[in-house]
Amino acid sequence: MNIKHAVILLSFAAQVHANEDAPYRFSRDVLFEAKDSQQLLAVPLDSGVYAGSSADFSDLRLIDHDGAETPYTLQKITGSKTVTNRVAVRAEKPVMAKSGQDGIVISVKLAPDETCRVDGLTIVTGQRDFEYQLQVQGSADGDSWQTLANKGLIYDYSRHMDFGNRDVELSDNDARQFKITVAEAIQNQAGGAMELTRSLQNGNEFQREEKIDILSQPLRIERIELWRNEIETVAEAERRFDYPIAGFEVRQDHQKQITEIDVDARLLP
Fold first, then answer.
1. How far is residue 189 CA from its own chain's centroid?
2. pLDDT one-digit tens code per residue, 212-223
3. Distance CA 226, CA 114 (A)
4. Nearest-CA neighbor of 244 among 264, 223, 228?
5. pLDDT of residue 244
6. In 3D, which of 41, 48, 46, 222 has the Cα closest to residue 122?
7. Which whole-number Å values give the CA distances from 135 to 42, 76, 86, 109, in the listed order?
8. What is the pTM of this model?
9. How many CB atoms lie within 10 A of CB 146?
10. Which end of the chain is more exposed for a tag (fewer CB within 10 A), N or C?
C-alpha cells in the first residue's frame, strides 16, 4: 500500500494575509491511499482544527507531500434520516348499522382497484369534549374476521386544553373489509345549567336541592379515513457529530440558589 499524505496547516490569520511564508502554529497529517488516477479527498475537520483556526477558516492551508498548496473547498456534511409519511387508502362509502341500545357498527370496504395495505384509520369529527372506545376487525374475504384494534381510544379534551386523538392504529393485516364497532356511541355529560331550590323558614335555610341537566351526546362521524405508513429516507440539511468537551465546570451559588455550568466548546460548531 502506497501511503501519501497532505498536511493541514494553521497559521496566525493576520500573518497569513501579510506574508504567505509566515510560520504555522499547528499542522495535522492527512493520510490517504495513493491511486494512479486523479482522486478527490474528503477531509473532515475535527475538534483540534476548530480550536486552532479562525471562525471563517481563512488561516487554513492544505499542503501536499511536495510542499505545494492544494486548492480545497469547505462544505457541510449532510446526513440522512428516516421519516414516516401517511398515505391515504381509497375506500368505498361506509355503511352503518345499530348495535345494541347505544352502539353502532360501521362497515368499510377498500375500493375495488385498491391494492394497498391499511395501517390505521382516522375518525373525522368536528365534535368536542368526548371520549369513545372502538374495536376494529378486518377480513380479507368477508367470512373470516380478526381483531386489529381491541380498545382503540379516540378523545378530545379541549374543554381543558388543546389535546386530542382521532387515530386508531391497526395490527399487521391483509384485510380489505373492516368493521368499526363503538359499543357506547352515546355519552351522558353534565350540562352547563344547574337548578338550585332553597327552602326557607323564618329567614333560615332548612332545605336545599340541586339539579344538574344531563345531556346525551351521540358520536357524530363526518367521515372515516384509511391510511398506510410509508417509510422514506431523506437528506438532512446538516449532519450531527459528537465532539469531546474540553472543559466542563459546575459551580453552586447557594446564596442565589442556582447552579452554573460552564462548557468550553473551543469554537466547535
1. 34
2. 666 778 899 999
3. 12
4. 264
5. 78
6. 222
7. 55, 50, 22, 16
8. 0.58
9. 12
10. N
